[in-house]
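Collaborator request, handled under Task 6.
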Amino acid sequence: MSTASLRVLDPDRRKPRFKKRTTGPRKPPIPLRPLHRMWRRTIDRIDVVPVELPVRRLAPALAGVVACQISDFHVDRDEDLARLQEAVKTINQQHPDLVFLTGDYFSGGDTMRRYIDDFSRALKDLNPKSGVYAILGNHDHWASASRVSEALRGAGAEVLQNEHRRIAVKKEPINIVGIDDLWARRAEPVKAFRGLSPDDCSIVLAHNPDTALYTRHLAPGVMLSGHTHGGVVRIPYYGSLIRSVLRIGPTFSAGLNRYNEFFIYTNRGLGTFWVRIRINCRPEISRFSLIPMAEAAIEEETLEKPRGRRIRRARLRATA
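Structure tokens returned to the collaborator:
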């Protein structure tokens, strides 16, 4: 735009003056800036979370393979895009073999149209040794599944929609299974596993952890999910205050949990949606070191429940 187009003539003085251009978000009042900086740290400072990830039927030669997961970007503002760019740089510093993207890249159609090109350019910088694999989340379907998928493919990611890819890592086969979103009513686990046998090793990508309820009979090796934002607000010794999102149970809102014969890892996500807060729940890059299930140090504990009922819960035993 030329400067002439910005001129506004003052009818009194008959001299040209110019409108001020404002760029970037406005700063808060000085007394509130310390509080503002503290708030921004809770939503912008990314944790790299190291996890030994137990995978059923993983070949011994694949023990120690590094994979990274990021989820729930919700790129709706400039700062969300900057957080994604920082996450990409941090992932590359981990030198991963594989990178997994597990959905909800935008919150809706308006922000998708505004940021989709920059989003694709940011992801194009990922450089794992054996590929980037992506699935869609509920918000991606509500925005535009076709445009989001096209942008992901343009960035070099393999988009899996109720399908799988058999790949070789260190000359050993492994299957990456992508199940489409549950809330968007697009999840078809049986279709995604078609052609695989119970003896095949699989890493399942499913945006919503509740997808496990409809996938357990297919013998997944491990499932990676997002969707919950880690519960958003987490209280020490209690967990998330948001208790009703998952049918599978509130424990599965974050971290590594065993479900029947396999583990589910729920990533806390990078972005925020609706309420722009995080308490004890920072944005997360999951850095997995794959291990065979047989080598996982697992302990069983029996929990007493009301009316004499008991449940058994399995978890990884702490290791040095």
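The cover message to the collaborator said: "The CA atoms of residues 213 and 248 lie 7 Å apart. The chain has a mean pLDDT of 83. Please let us know whether this matches your experimental observations."
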